[in-house]
Amino acid sequence: MDNIIDKRIQMDSQMKEFFECIGGDADTQQQRIQCIRNGLAVIADRLRLGKAEITVDIPKNRFMPLGERSSAVLYEEDGAELGTPVDIEMKIRTGGTVFIKDYPYGPGYSEEEIQTHRFIFREIFIQYNRTLAQCMLEKIMNTDINTGVASQDSLMYYAVNLIKNGRIGDYTGIFFNIHNFKYVNKVFDYSQGDVILRNYAQMVKSYLDSDEEIARLGGDNFVVICRNENASDFISKIKDVHMSHEFRSVKREFQLGVTAGIACLEGVDKPREVMARTSIAYQAARKTGAGSIVVYTKEIQKHLMDDQEILAAFPQALAAGEFVVYYQPKVRIADKSIYGAEALVRWVRDGQVVTPARFIPQLEREGSVCRLDYYMLEQVCGFLKSRLDKGLKIVPVSVNFSRRHLEEGDLVERITGTIDRFGIDRSHIEIELTESEDYQNYEIMSSVIGRLKERGISTSIDDFGTGFSSLNMIKKVDLDTIKIDKSLIPFDDVNNNKHQDIVMFSSIIDLIGRLGKKSVAEGVETHQQLDYLEKLGCDIVQGYVFDKPLPKDEFEQRLESGY
Length: 563
Fold this sequence. Notes:
By secondary structure, the protein is an alpha/beta fold. The protein has helices at residues 2-8, 13-22, 29-47, 111-141, 152-164, 181-187, 190-205, 228-238, 271-288, 298-319, 356-366, 369-389, 411-421, 442-454, 471-476, 499-514, 527-536, 552-561, and strands at residues 49-58, 68-76, 86-91, 97-104, 171-178, 213-218, 221-227, 241-247, 250-256, 258-264, 293-295, 323-332, 337-349, 352-354, 397-402, 429-434, 458-464, 481-484, 518-522, 540-542, 550-551. The protein folds into 3 domains: 2-141, Beta-Lactamase; 152-296, Alpha-Beta Plaits (2-Layer Sandwich), CATH 3.30.70.270; 310-484 and 548-561, EAL domain (TIM Barrel, Alpha-Beta Barrel).
């Protein structure tokens, strides 16, 4: 190569300037092309160069889902009479090809000129390829490998530039989660789920303009920064995305909705505040329910901070025994005897009783409710054991378990192990499954319920007729007891004895009886309701008509005195 340089290219000041130009500082491909243009302009006359064009062809890959094909003119002599071009083709080490068309000024190049031009353009390619590789590496570092959209770090860099340029107030941040994408993974395997997620991300990206950005945070969580005037349209598009996917001759259609938080970015001066505002709004949307769209406010932020305080305090509070058990009697209507009780948690903090509504939803969403459920089971077992040891009367007690537990492989073993450890009969504990967002995997639920039943532990479902409890559930899951939500019971201040309410409730009681299951009416408050339930054949009631939830000592007194 040195000989080639010596023979064909004299390393004079002109050539030194050429090499300095093409090797100049450049952070982008466009900057490198400009360096090349500057260099070729220096030696164009010397090379008899009339025109030079570069075309870059990069195939589709994980980081460039659409690939890349771009062209640029590197040099062009105005009014030049161009001869036959020389085609130069070079491979990019990161994948792809660079094509250069080199046109002579006047007659075609001689063989020696062709060799010289190939050397010159090979040197140009080396510099171009170096910049291209650098840009590709940066793209890889700033791209989510699974979806091809931006990474969180890249999004933050994007936000930094908007803040520096004083444009952040023109933009809106949107944090969204694909609703029920886990069921897509279950229809296909997880590898195909990744393909669907990638296709989804690219589709959503197509809804954005070139000066807007989308990043994946992990799982099926995304953040978008878009112009204020486009935010509403973008939300309307992602609320209901239709997709289809075929794998091994199985084709499925999907309707993918989102739960989203929206935040105006006016006044944001730090990139992390973009994430803070949007994630706060998203958490509020989750609390509202799947498919909700919530706009960030200062008030929402305060509520979330309160929730975080609860979650932060929970582990220490549990260890300190701040959670105590209250017992609400279940009364057999026929003879007004205490049939059993439901164990209800109260948080006694700084001498004040915190109601479950203040902390259970937060623990449920975060997952800590499972620890609390096992704690409650141990407390109840200990209470029953102490009464047995004293030779006192005991009744079955139902312990609430979140449906989150159903995914635990050792759930049944942990429950039975706890009961057996205290030496009480398993028939004295009932596991009551509570609401847990939209858990509808009845196959797993049925399996767990069946295994508990095999081990002598009865089960119930609460709040039947509302939320996610349904006729489909009692059809597919062999529960022992169905607890009917208080909102369905007639003769209260709301229902006001409406005919349709009476017909519906009586039908539910009849259905439960025909299925051979026990019925428990929750939230019974009046003697009129009690008389009505007795006429219908409802088995058991629970509510203020007999007792509110009682501290342990008061419940023990109730067990002794009865009604």
